[in-house]
Amino acid sequence: MLDWLPLAAPALPLDEAGKYVAGAYIVFVVLLVVYVGIMAAKLQRIERELRELASFAEHRAQGEEAAPGHESETPSRSDSLASHGSRGGGA
Questions:
Q1: What's the CA gap between 66 and 74, in Å, rounded?
Q2: What are the backbone dihedrals phi and psi of residue 88, each rounded to the nearest 5 degrees, phi first?
Q3: What is the DSSP string of the chain?
Q4: Which of 83, 17, 25 is nearest to 52 (CA)?
Q5: Maximum distance among all alpha carbons in the chain?
């Protein structure tokens, strides 16, 4: 009966294994905080670009209401994207 005892015993003593478990949790929490920080920065960037796009659309709509017959004065799509700093990439 005592000959199977080493098979049931943990590979590391419990006092030493606790350090590794704590280290693993610390690494997990750090990675989670970094991930949340990256997602928050990305969300801020998207919100800023959305505000710029909404203001651009609002100005364009106001310009069309003021002078409906002057389509030549409104910038083309490529001009408007260049002036608002489009990066041409996705998220």
A1: 12
A2: 75, 15
A3: -GGGHHHHS-SS-HHHHHHHHHHHHHHHHHHHHHHHHHHHHHHHHHHHHHHHHHHHHHHHHHHHHH-TT-GGGSPPHHHHHHHTT------
A4: 83
A5: 97
pTM of the predicted protein model:
0.51
Confidence check: pLDDT of 76 > 60: no
Q: Is the pLDDT of residue 14 over 90?
A: no
Question: How would residue 68 be classed by pLDDT, with cut points 50, 70 and 90?
Answer: low
Cα–Cα distance, 50 to 2 (Å, whole number): 70
